[in-house]
Automatic annotation (TrEMBL):
Keywords: Carbohydrate metabolism, Cell wall biogenesis/degradation, Glycoprotein, Glycosidase, Hydrolase, Polysaccharide degradation, Secreted, Signal. Residues 678-767 form the Glycosyl hydrolase family 31 C-terminal domain. It is found in: Secreted. Transmembrane segments: none annotated. PANTHER family: ALPHA-GLUCOSIDASE, ALPHA_BETA-GLUCOSIDASE AGDC-RELATED. Its EC number is 3.2.1.21. Pfam families: Gal_mutarotas_2, Glyco_hydro_31_2nd, Glyco_hydro_31_3rd. The keyword Signal applies. It catalyses: Hydrolysis of terminal, non-reducing beta-D-glucosyl residues with release of beta-D-glucose. This is beta-glucosidase. Belongs to the glycosyl hydrolase 31 family. Residues 1-21 form the signal peptide. Gene3D superfamilies: Glycosidases, glycosyl hydrolase (family 31), Golgi alpha-mannosidase II.
Length: 893
């Protein structure tokens, strides 16, 4: 949901003084003096040194700081922490309260670590190398470190055509370009952006993959920054951090020489593993900006059911609010009693409900607006630079204040507002929360000297465009404190180094809270801006938890920082109904789910802004079924795009949802694994085929979980897709036949009609599928399982299943099942603490060459009538109908 298009670029280029600084001549920066290391001291896993400016200051964007402190810690055998600070000044550091850091293992022996820290003293430079191969992974080499009050630079050499992934949020290719490339991190309410500009979230982590291994580099810094990757004749390929504050705080992660997903687990050790989400949240979500009233909302629910398309969760955008004020309903358009009726209806049909909550609170002194009055009484607003009055912006409801998530009283305030407005007894009993605009977004152009005037000019809140319905219209007829950071000598509005912020004029404060706005603990937005959305996420997660203690939450946010996935999921923001946005969404979800550890992610299906088309929406419905978070959402001025609006789209959605629902237990198991140890829920092809260089750049196909290869059609009018199949057995998900022969290569999949999507099973998997889809996830859990055994080329396969009550953070009962297959025998073992309540209907063995003579269940021959064999497909089907409450084995001869 976003501001109207007309306002978007109203002030582009208005401020000449903000024209990008042209200073970034690499030669000039490399001529800076750098530092000398003195008093180098090592003790166990720690190395410390003093860094002293090594020559005449170059003062590129301020004054070079003379003395720095270096601290290197081998925190584990696979992680090195390198910190460079100014010992004479309390510089800003990302607070532990926002991103708790991992404990170091003080017994780590550097000698046995997988990566090593190496350095030269004069000039000081450092490198990280892989111990086993002596391969250098990161090296500041001939690029001096620059450390000035508002400018930090670190630059590393990279191999030519380096495979770098991460540094999001972005809309570029999953493997980042290595030529003339800048990634800017500064949260921004983006809409209709040129590719490559800064977006909502900030994740200064990258994974670098080589055929010899995969490692990671995480810079813990929330200040604005440009990260440049470039290749030039003189310097080769390099990656350069240009940061406008904070400190240099790096974690180097060894990853592994053989398994790329190891680095993902090591990154999770630093930022935390993703939260588990409720089972129901894997069902289909429907939303739009522009539902006019409660009758619309109710009709969408009944229309889905009439079209036999499973709808799990209905959402409502800001339309429900009175004058766009949070924690209100419009009494004429979305009266509370009617909205409660809708929520009751949904709940009584095992369906769910989610509403949007923005951070900005309407500034309405003396008007009896509770959320404002209570926040004012508790004094929880972000303050203007003079620290006396609230910082004012202009957002949807007009002039607004912003909750200060650093204020210790804000969590109570937020809990209380959630408790009251979302009360099951008197308010709207939501099942999940949707938080938006939390960059934080403000529509006020910089300088925002008169937010009242700007709110008037921009017509905020916008008037309704339809008349209210009859309020009695029938529905559902048929059915801790920080140390103070001294910024007194800094220019926080217009720092000397200009990051390539694309918001408005490019000023850091444009379209957001001012960089000099002050938090309760004295921190200012200059340092903490990139954390705002993530802190709102935590507060909202906590408020939802307070409403339903002990239950997992579904909170979907727009803005994120490293670590956000431990509490929330995210959608990719305001995309357009365009084919290239469908394509870009794959790199977007791969970044979030396989690098940044925010696996509950999806893009707005069929596109948010502009009008979708039948073919785009049909293809997007198919692709969207493989986003972990599957939600159709669009903008207020766009045509309706619920899946039932076109027959082909409805058919495509039904087909893809059938596949998705059958796989929900499989992906739920993957989420449990991710929560346990950080194993990614989605995998780019190279995670599974790390030696196959053909896979490194592929982001138009991906693995959903470990072994479901999705190869969608992403071009308009195309009915075929050139899919890459690495060297392994693959089986068609639908007809189960083996679609590929040893060798690896591009396969042209043809006749992909508008209602289907190529999905393959990678050999080596045993999949616990539900026998068929269902209209709700509740119904799905009453459906029998079928076990599909898809052997790898070496004749083996394995898999697992995790089940619990689907909602508790600490479930009382759990079921964990392991499946192993070799020598034509499937062995199922497990602890069945949580009753599955259903049967194993059958086992299907794929890739069977010859007609089997006999099949045994637990060593006993099964009757001939229970087996059937399809020679052309190579599928042996064994009907079982046994309660899924203990282990068993099935073998064939
Ligand atoms: C460590 O640094 C020294 C000094 O530059 C260099 O001679 C040595 O080769 C480096 N070791 C590795 C494994 O890179
Ligand atoms: C890449 O290097 C070229 C040549 O030095 C330079 O013109 C360009 O600005 C650099 N781009 C980035 C993003 O650093
Ligand atoms: C680098 O990219 C910038 C911005 O996209 C462009 O203006 C410039 O011409 C490019 N420079 C080179 C050397 O490719
Ligand atoms: C629901 O379906 C009916 C009948 O097709 C249609 O007239 C109506 O516009 C639909 N309403 C919504 C909100 O989808
Ligand atoms: C503090 O700053 C705000 C915003 O600039 C201004 O409206 C307010 O009057 C100032 N308060 C005082 C006491 O100076
Ligand atoms: C979308 O379609 C509607 C209804 O046909 C039309 O009014 C609107 O201008 C279209 N929007 C765009 C961006 O084409
Ligand atoms: C797809 O077909 C339509 C109708 O023939 C045409 O208007 C459109 O340009 C085609 N799109 C592409 C990308 O070729
Ligand atoms: C589309 O293709 C699928 C898979 O090949 C097939 O089962 C289905 O019948 C086709 N649908 C139409 C409408 O042709
Ligand atoms: C502003 C913007 O472009 N947002 C999203 C639009 O589309 C792609 C995928 O659908 C997203 O990755 C972008 O972030």
């Amino acid at each position: 949901m976003h501001l109207r298009t007309a306002l978007k670029f109203a002030v582009l280029g208005q401020f000449a003084f903000l024209v990008r600084a042209g200073v970034s001549d690499p030669a000039q920066l490399d001529a800076c003096p750098g530092y000398k290391a003195k008093n180098v001291f090592t003790l166990g896993p720690k190395l410390t040194a003093d860094l002293v400016l090594a020559g005449k200051a170059c003062n590129v964007y301020g004054t070079d700081i003379e003395h720095l402190k270096l601290e290197v810690t081998y925190e584990s055998s696979s992680r090195i922490h390198v910190k460079i600070t100014d010992p004479s000044d309390a510089r800003y550091e990302v607070p532990e309260s926002v991103l708790p850091r991992p404990q170091a293992n003080l017994f780590t022996s550097p000698h046995f670590a997988a990566i090593q820290f190496n350095y030269t003293t004069s000039p000081f430079s450092f490198s990280i190398f892989r111990a086993s191969t002596h391969e250098v992974l990161f090296s500041t080499g001939a690029h001096p470190i620059i450390f000035e009050p508002q400018y930090l630079r670190v630059k590393t050499d990279l191999p030519a055509n380096a495979n770098i992934y991460g540094l999001g949020e972005h809309t570029d290719t999953f493997r980042l370009p290595t030529h003339n490339y800048t990634r800017t991190l500064w949260s921004r309410d983006a809409y209709g952006v040129p590719q490559g500009t800064n977006l909502y979230g900030n994740h200064p982590i990258y994974f670098e993959h080589r055929t010899t291994g995969t490692h990671g580099v995480f810079l813990v810094n929330s200040n604005g920054m440009d990260i440049k990757i470039n290749d030039t004749e003189s310097t080769g390929t390099t990656l350069e951090y240009n940061v406008i504050g904070g400190i240099l705080d790096f974690y180097f992660l060894a990853g592994s020489e053989t398994d790329p997903t190891e680095v993902a687990r090591q990154y999770a050790d630093v930022v935390g593993t993703p939260a588990e989400v409720p089972y129901w949240s894997f069902g289909l979500h429907q939303c739009r900006f522009g539902y006019q009233n409660f009758v619309d909302v109710a009709n969408v629910i009944t229309n889905y059911s009439a079209a036999s398309i499973p709808l799990e969760t209905m959402w409502t955008d800001i339309d429900y609010m009175y004058k766009r004020r949070i924690f209100t309903v419009d009494p004429d358009y979305f009266p509370l009693n009617r909205m409660r009726e809708i929520v009751d209806y949904l709940h009584s049909h095992n369906q769910h409900f989610v509403l949007m909550t923005d951070p900005a609170v309407a500034y309405l002194p003396g008007e009896g607006y509770g959320p404002f009055d209570r926040g004012t009484a508790a004094d929880v607003w972000l303050k203007a630079a003079n620290n006396s009055s609230p910082f004012l912006g202009a957002v949807w409801p007009g002039v607004t204040v912003f909750p200060d998530w650093f204020n210790p009283k804000t969590q109570d305030y937020w809990n209380n507002e959630f408790e009251m407005f979302y009360s099951p007894d008197t308010g709207l009993d939501i099942d999940g929360a949707w938080i938006d605009m939390n960059e934080p977004s403000s529509f006020c152009n910089y300088p925002c000297t008169d937010p009242f005037e700007q709110a008037r000019e921009q017509d905020l809140p916008p008037a309704r465009t339809s008349s209210p319905p009859d309020p009695n219209t029938p529905i559902f007829e048929t059915t801790t404190l920080q140390k103070r950071v001294d910024h007194s000598h800094d220019d926080v509005q217009n720092p000397p180094y200009h990051i390539a912020n694309f918001a408005g004029s490019g000023a850091l404060s444009d379209k957001t809270a001012y960089t000099d706005a002050i938090h309760a603990n004295g921190l200012i937005e200059y340092d903490t801006h990139n954390l705002y959305g993530t802190m709102m996420s935590t507060a909202t997660h906590n408020a939802m938890l307070a409403r339903r203690p002990g239950q997992r939450t579904l909170v979907i946010t727009r803005s994120t920082f490293a670590g956000a996935g431990t509490r929330v999921g995210k959608w990719l923001g305001d995309n357009f109904s365009q084919w290239d946005h469908l394509r870009q969404s794959l790199s977007g979800i791969l970044g979030m789910a396989s690098v940044f550890h925010i696996p509950m992610v999806g893009a707005d299906i069929c596109g948010y802004a502009e009008n979708t088309t039948e073919t785009l929406c049909a293809r997007w419905a198919s692709v969207g079924a493989f986003y972990p978070f599957m939600r159709n959402h669009n903008a207020d001025t766009s045509i309706s795009q619920e899946f039932y609006r076109w027959p082909t789209v409805a058919e495509a959605a039904r087909n893809a949802l059938d596949i998705r629902y059958r796989l929900i237990d499989y992906i739920y198991t993957a989420f449990h694994q991710a929560h346990t140890d950080g194993t990614p829920v989605l995998n780019p092809l190279w995670y599974k085929f790390p030696k196959d260089a053909n896979t490194f750049g592929i982001d138009t196909q991906f693995f959903f979980g470990d072994s479901i290869l999705v190869s969608p059609v992403l071009e308009e009018n195309a009915t075929s897709v050139s899919a890459y199949y690495p060297d392994e057995a693959f089986y068609d998900f639908q007809d189960l036949s083996r679609t590929y022969v040893k060798g690896g290569g591009v396969v042209e999949l043809t006749d992909v009609n508008l209602t289907s999507i190529p999905v393959a099973i990678k050999g080596g998997a045993v999949l616990p599928l539900r026998e068929k889809g269902a209209m709700t996830t509740t119904q799905l859990r009453e459906t029998d399982f079928e076990i599909v055994v898809a052997p790898a080329l070496d004749g083996t396969a394995s898999g697992s299943l995790y089940l619990d009550d689907g909602i508790s953070i600490t479930p009382k009962t759990k079921t964990t099942v392991s499946f192993t297959y070799s020598h034509q025998k499937l062995t199922v073992k497990g602890t069945f603490g949580h009753p599955t309540g259903v049967d194993v209907a059958r086992v299907r063995f794929l890739g069977v060459q010859n007609a089997p003579r006999s099949v045994k269940l637990n060593g006993q021959a099964v009757s001939k009538s229970a087996m059937s064999f399809d020679l052309t497909k190579g599928v042996l089907d064994v009907s079982l109908k046994i309660p899924f409450s203990r282990g068993f084995s099935v073998e064939y001869q």
